[in-house]
TrEMBL record, chains A, B:
Keywords per UniProt: Hydrolase, Magnesium, Metal-binding, NAD
Cofactor(s) listed in the protein's UniProt record: Zn(2+); Mg(2+)
CDD domains according to UniProt: NUDIX_NADH_pyrophosphatase_Nudt13
PANTHER family to which the protein is assigned, alphabetical: NAD-CAPPED RNA HYDROLASE NUDT12, NUDIX HYDROLASE, NUDC SUBFAMILY
Organism encoding this protein: Stereocaulon virgatum
Family assignment from sequence similarity: Belongs to the Nudix hydrolase family. NudC subfamily.
The protein, known as: NAD(+) diphosphatase
Amino acid sequence: MPQPELPEPAHAEVDSMLSRKFGREVANYFAGSPLNRLSFLRTDHPFLSAALKHPSTSFLLFNNMSPLAKDPTQLEYVKLEDVKPLIGEDPYSKSEKQIIEEYNSTITIPQLLFLGLDESKISGFEHDIYHGAPYFAIDVTPKGTIKLKAEKLIEIIKSRGLQFVEGRMHMSLPAPQAAIYAQARALLDWNARNPFCAGCGQPTLSINAGTKRTCPPTDMASITEKGAIDSTIVGEPAKDRPDCVTRKGISNLSFPRTDPTVIMAVLSADSERVLLGRQKRWPPLWYSTLAGFVEPAESVEEAVRREVWEESGVKLGRVVIHSTQPWPYPANLMIGAIGQCIPGGEEIHLKHDPELDDAKWVSMAEVKEALEVGTSGLGEDAGPDYKEGGLRLPPRTAIANRLLTAVTGGFLEEHSHAPKM
Amino acid sequence: MPQPELPEPAHAEVDSMLSRKFGREVANYFAGSPLNRLSFLRTDHPFLSAALKHPSTSFLLFNNMSPLAKDPTQLEYVKLEDVKPLIGEDPYSKSEKQIIEEYNSTITIPQLLFLGLDESKISGFEHDIYHGAPYFAIDVTPKGTIKLKAEKLIEIIKSRGLQFVEGRMHMSLPAPQAAIYAQARALLDWNARNPFCAGCGQPTLSINAGTKRTCPPTDMASITEKGAIDSTIVGEPAKDRPDCVTRKGISNLSFPRTDPTVIMAVLSADSERVLLGRQKRWPPLWYSTLAGFVEPAESVEEAVRREVWEESGVKLGRVVIHSTQPWPYPANLMIGAIGQCIPGGEEIHLKHDPELDDAKWVSMAEVKEALEVGTSGLGEDAGPDYKEGGLRLPPRTAIANRLLTAVTGGFLEEHSHAPKM
């Protein structure tokens, strides 16, 4: 299978002082979106309504978090006419304020998400000074009161020979499509994963074009014995719900969650070897960089040193951040770093946090060779030049690969030259 | 008021290749914790129990997220005997499994948090190969079934002339204390803010020494009409609770949330000016760097370019990450970056996202002078050399100050030399 392309770094060609001093920016897979998110227009329902109805608009559908696609290398978008039976004529005809006032916890509203405008499409939609082809995503997973409509929609879509592709097919998408997929998946997953308010336990409502969940102060449904919920009695006024702290001021509970993680290529004190680790569930010979979640109240640099020590016993000094990668499974921000051992800090000890099956020091030459002949997706075959028994490493679309490529080649050299005059 | 010290970067003195090529690591305020978190021992109740009871152990108390302190420059810790009336003889005498099995949603368990061991304290606690003085934090906010006990404890503490200091006093703490405070505050706040499961709406239970919340499968309390909760009937078996998706495999909902944010010093294409912005609620003449939340599925570099364009209209090319700062209000990870305009991208337009009161380009010389004479906490007076009408900037404890200091001086020079031989 051909290696999927990586995104072009934005404006990488610009000969700025930062580019001269730090070299070309590294753009990782799932970044490099062609869309302008126009985040400040997400409460503007006249804008959203007009964008939804424009002929240039595309809808990306997800069923159980699997995207609609032609095949594993190409997403498939549908048109408004296709999704009207599920979402109705115009979900943005009422203001956000009205929708909150009319909230009824017994009615399932299909999850719709505004992704942004592709400004490269000249013949697209125009609004004020903004233009481009609009993109939306919809979660068509059959559930609640939209179960039958969603099942019908999925049936029609499948009858056209299209499919909702499961697994990690998206690692084969062209870079701009992978970024659109990642944005849609991360936000639809966050909405589906958080139907209740963590502050008060009551059901919540999606607003801000799919990028916020609010805990409405009233409900048109009536709460009955054992927490079961009745359908609305027509004409009844909305009932007040118990107080919730998220209604007083701004709460992070209302906004999407992104979990920062660290992933790091680790050099020995003499810079001649690289630390690699393997997880218990990986196939034999498979190794990668170490990684872990950033904890509350630690810097990225501290998280890198903590994780490396906890997982391998190795003690790091200087840590440098290399590049970052959004990772939509479900909502990580991978912060890639390069760390170097303090002198004598190389001893491996796997018994602090027994998470790894193994960790070992590998020569630069061996890593370099594996990057050339031994990379692929987990469990897939390596290329034809791979020699049996050789080290296996992650593919180019993984930031681990980019970090290892950096320490065995480009990155350190790029950063060691004096600025061009 | 004297400027509080900044933390020393860990192992900054090590003359590694990364240090030679990238210079000294920047350590920001709230980072630089002296504690080893030993995250892998948080489920080990015999370890936690022994640590809790050791004579070298310190407890940091919070009331409504305000920490116990002698004065604004010094936290105050208490001993186990002081807190026993609230937390009991040994909250870790039972295993985590037992505690989950005995879960009763009508009983308030005081929120206890293991912070780590201060390994610099030689005479501390020893466990296996680990040693140091243990630190715990406790939320003593009066609430639920512990209201009276907590009020009594607070009364006794206050009678000793101690206080729970509100506001941002902690910006005056010595760096290691600030890091301990930040860790405790971030995690206690997360527990207090998330009493319910966002997946199913049921109340949750703190486990893993305060670093995880689980949605127990059973409850010793009985659920009655209208969702009100009765006290346990002695001898009754625990009742099954409705299914929850967080009980199937690992869910991020069970773990603390940290919100990645970007904050960036922005240079003009010719590197001669810096972009500054001011928020509407700030005092006159106050400016800082621009900042904003990272959105799902964007890289840090993309978030920097998006936020700068949305808030100021300015168009960035190359972005370089500088350093990071944990920010415990309530749970941010500030990722500091330096960005540079594309040629001609300097035009300011405040009408995309009208969040800022003003944004403007300021000469390097003016920023440099303000960093010398015009910094302080928000609303505080500047130093004696400040000239009326001059630019005001944030203090050294803010990463914004460190970023501006970097672009007007050290950082770019540090990174422009060839490596030492």
